[in-house]
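Quick one, T. Sequence first:
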Amino acid sequence: MKSICRNLAVSVLALLFAVSLASIVVAGQEPGSKPEAMASPAQMANAAAADKLDINTATKDQLKGLPGIGDAYSQKIIDGRPYRTKLDLVHRKIIPQATYDKIKDQVIAKQPKASGMAPPK
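Structure tokens:
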């Protein structure tokens, strides 16, 4: 009987130790921080967009850093601004489809924030 109680006590202590360690790990996170697995789709989209190059504001050198984009294409991209979507690069025949396919995951076409003023009539 004593060995059963002793085994039970050791098991309970081991369980309490494991729970304590788990709570210490969780408590080590900053308050209000979310693991990436719990990020909302909007937050993930914003993070992804932050990593992309905006074709409406990028410099010629930044554009030349993209695969398949050299001096000529970077200048054509700059001359064709502004773009409503990144697909405008192909629709307006700024770059060929094959070149677009190489860069489509690296670029974005941000729109300027609308000002509080109404457009002139």
